[in-house]
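User: Show me sequence and structure for the first protein, then do the same for the second.

Assistant: Starting with the first protein.
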Amino acid sequence: MLPSLLALLFLGSVTAYQRGAPITLCYDPYPHHHAFRSEEPLPYTIQLDKQTYNPGDMIKVTVSGTEPFNGLQIAVHTLNGDWNTLFGEFMNYSQALQAYPYYDNVMNCLTHSEKSVNTNSEVFYWKAPAVNYGDLIFSATLVKSFEVFWVNVTAEIRAASIANVITPPQSTIGYGSFDSKLDLSECGKESGCITHPANCKEGIDGDCMFAVAYMPVSGGVRFRLTHYKTEEQSSYMALGISEDEFMDHDETFTCSQDGTSVDLAHGYNPAMYNIKVQSNTTTNIAVEVVDDSLVCEFTRPETSSFNYYGHTGLDTHKIDYMNGIRTPEHHLYVAFGERYAGSHSSVVKHHILPIVSTSKVSFGDNSRHSFYTLALGVKAHIILMAISWAAVAGVAMVVARYYKDGFLNSTDRLWGLKPWFQVHRILISTLGILTGVAFIVIFVHYGKINQLVHAACGIVVVGLTTLQIIVGIARPDPGTIKRTVFNWFHRLTAISAYILAAATMLIGAKIEYMNQTMQTSVFGLLFAMVLLPVVILIILEIIGCQKDESSPETQAKSTNGMQVEEKEAADPKGVPSSHKTSFAIFITFVVAMTALLIAFIIVVAIL
């Protein structure tokens, strides 16, 4: 996630891609600006010096507007063919532009080459293909600013002759047929499947959200993706196939609709982002929207390879599912969200965590599996940190601040020392161990720094915790100037660590990949757990201020309010009422904190 986050931070500061639109957008030129196309009136046009073409003709193209544009991408497609096929060749363009050999090793995709073009007009030439492909269309994306852009700015060019027209490659999407063996009712019999929720039922009254069905067929694996009750006209469901629990260096299949058409796009994740790939190996593609459910079905060969354009240029990825048919080798991921209006197949980055198969699946196994949302390592990290900082730290602070004279009597002893000191020491040691384990668990799970802000704050918290423990072990003797400095430093460091830990946890609860239910429930419980110790501290502070300043116990502590002494004050006769009250408050606090913690663990465990 770190590369993706850094990319977002970088892209947010520019008006267009620094070195031009990436070659991967030649297939579907929708800018990856994390924004929707502009609905403002279009200020740009594409003008051709000829309205018809013969094979090999040179056509002058002028892209101009009443306002400067900072980004440009243009390609030529057949009117009714596959957008993966580009036609002709761009030539004689300015130094502000660059061309890509996206299709058939010809410069047929043109974009800007600098940070921004910043011009009202660009003129270049397009050389028609060597054969007559019939009527074609220029389609451009024009960027005014990072947030304001237009897609599908078009100009048609007709074939000068209807004779000797070569039929261009046609899209195979939608020409396949559905196999009834992949119906959910056949899962466990003729096919295997994964559903969310587990054991859900399909149909108008069903509770299924997603289903992935699969079965081996001759030479490959057939899949069906079903997004039930999509509600949105522009929506998508994407399947990722991975050998581990991280969707990088893995292929994807995205089934999407825009209200008028359904598309299946083959993609690849070079890292934590997705690109479209040039591939014709996915066959027998069937798509439909029925009863508000989006359905895509296709066959994937057992072995194949495809080309993709990464940061280092053209690369090849090889796929081998032969063993996966017989043995569980792959996790299945499902992401979902909204498709960009006006795009061919570009989708909005999923705003919640993808759901992942609870275990690896075998494509030849007719079992029914289920998905999970939060990985076990992530759950362990969340629960351990919540126990450490929302529960243990709060109790440790309250004990150290208000129970130095014992919980009921100032003569109380625990292993030879005052109870507050022993309890505080045990709690802080526990906090340090749990925090360290939680940090190690999440790092081992991801294998790298993830969620930059949250991770950076967490690292500082671990550092402050370690410092607190070391300083506590080396505390000076009572009654010295060093002890006074120690007391101030120890308290300020503790407060800083607690505030930062609370902020870090609340930031984590609002990580964008968690869905709204997760964010609301986890954030609410964490906030209550963090706030409760603060409320108790305020209540006990008020009680302390109401004590008689001349009382023996108060005078015994008046030498230095910051000191942490093991000396006991004069033993009062009986149990002061203030002790009884504060002890009752403490017990109530611990019970309430325990209840909140149990509720928190239950909520996180079922996510």
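Switching to the second protein now.
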Amino acid sequence: MMQTTVSKHISFPLMRSLMRTSRWSENLLFRYGTVSQYVRTLRLRHSPAFSARPFYHQCAGMLRFSMHSVASFHTTSKCYNKSPPSQPPPEKESNEEEKDNREPNNMSPSQIAALAALNLIVAFLLLEPFRSRNEMPIEWEDFVSNYLSKGEVESIHVERGSQLAMAQLHPGAAVQGNALQPRPSGALTNRRHVIIKADADTIEERLRTVEKELGISPTDSLKIVWHDNSNVYTVVRLFVFGMIILTVLSVFRSMRFAIKSSNPFDFMSKVSYTRGDLASSTAPKTLFKDIAGMKEAKVEIKEYVEYLKNPSKFQSLGARIPRGALLLGPPGCGKTLLAKAVAAESDVPFLVMAGSEFVEMIGGLGASRVRSLFKDARNLRPCIIYIDEIDALGRSRAGSGESFEGGGSESEHTLNQLLVEMDGMADNSGIIMLASTNRANVLDSALLRPGRFDRHVTIELPTLLERIELFEMYLKKINLSKPIGEFVKFLAQATPGMTGADIANLCNEAALNAARDGEDTVKESNLTYALDKILAGQARVSNAISQEEKKTIAFHECGHVLVSWLLERTDALLKVSVIPRTSAALGFAQYMPSDKKLYSREDLFERMCVMLGGRAAETVVFNRVTTGAQDDLDKVSRLAYSQIKQYGMGDSAGLLSFPSDEQDDYQNKPYSKDMQQRMDMEAQQLIAKAYKTAESLIINNRPKLDKLCELLLKHEEMSYDDVKKAIGPPPYGEKNLVDMG
């Protein structure tokens, strides 16, 4: 066994300064020598038995040794740090000596970081060469057949008293026809090895017996290298891990006050909001003048901005600014856009959060975030708080009951905290609350009352004049082939029911289509393409339809067009097409709807006739019906029942108005079964009357129907002017139509 010697100079200077921090570590160095000599010893005298053990067994042993080392370190430190009572404490000669004699537990952060880095480096250097040593041992028979019999073994290393041995292979040895790759350059040797299950007492006898059977002469027999049992490698590895644990304990001890004073849930309960008034300088700000339409809504919201800028104007009259405003309206109508304008023009802190950010599964977390939000708002006042999609937070508590594991109660706690913060005992002067939602029907009544949300600003779908403003604003951003005025009025009339977001999307689709076609400007065809795509869906040119089906679709659509053309109160035709669309429509007829708010019984009846014109045309021409009229029949049925049950236009219900069956399928109906039967009968009669009217119009004008169908099959699309050239002007005068261009 090689004897270890004491080195006066350690090869790692930083390690030497580290070891001087306690006499316990110096004793370890004195006993086992320098780190560089440890590595040399390990390269010469390694233990195959220990290397063959699984790595997690080694780690467990290291951990036990490290914990024992920590206890020894603290005990030794206390003994050596005590000064005898008879001797006064030594005087400090200089700052340098004070730094050198500093206790390990009082190290500076930089020294702690250096110590941790050093331990990690030493651990890597010591453990990396043996990372590949954790191999599973093989049986003696496998060793003989795969290695020994093929002459791939150079020598065998055996540790006395061990049940394992290590066979050293020749360079470039091959196993099962495959040459073994060399070990990495950082390993102890470039030769490969295998671990064998063999008793140290009998391995030499078994080896010689096998060699005799294989016909190997005694002069060529393998060399067996015997090793004494050595635990140097184990002790060094445990020592390194012990030092790492000491470093971690020192770091934790220096941070003990910070850990005790901090709450691990503080980062979760702390609210995270966006400052809308501190938007990026590269992003353009949205002002009220940049918002088209919404005149009434802008007037109400502007009052909040004016109050924040000039509060004395209102206070001199004894007026109090409303504490909150709730923006209501369908999706895409501009609620968030108004909030952005308030943030840009208010010149006060604007705190923005989403309602979903308050909804959490952890109990009390949502309420804690509400408190944190209003606490920050009081420190920043005057300010504005804006909660987008507040329905996620302010859902009604009525009839909610108890949900599984208190999920419902947690949402109620969050809502209760919001109600208290908005109008409670705390002073909220200078804090204005804004919120938006498109589901006002689910909000709690306590949230909607005056004192919390004093104003409910309803933003409805844009009217014709507002759509003109929207198209003017968005068309200015694209390069048109003609002046804007030639497109705006037509597009505004052709898009009733569209929101501002829909109109912006339409203009963008037109520009994208022009770019796809390689155009320099956006033309009329690009705008009509975008309009058709949004209203009816993308055209599916690849969808193959048989000529028979295409003819049926053409007669069906021409039936709608002809009935609408011959009646007095119907809308003007924009386009009829038999090109299939991605919306599952095989054809469509598009009309120019009006902004009419009131409809008479005659208006609704003629609408029903137009809807049934397609089914009537199929019956007259082919003497059969198809499934293509399913959507038309659904619309006709709903329109007929609405006249009878809701509008008071039927004889069976008279002037009574009942809720629609679509609102609640399981509601108790406020009428008898007899009245239901009478309403059903009247609805059937009304639909039959409308069908007979449409059928008679088609039979009496069959030549016009055939001419329209022939033209539609030829061109696949027809406009108002094409129909007028084919069958003449409408009998009741020109329809209300606005041309583009």
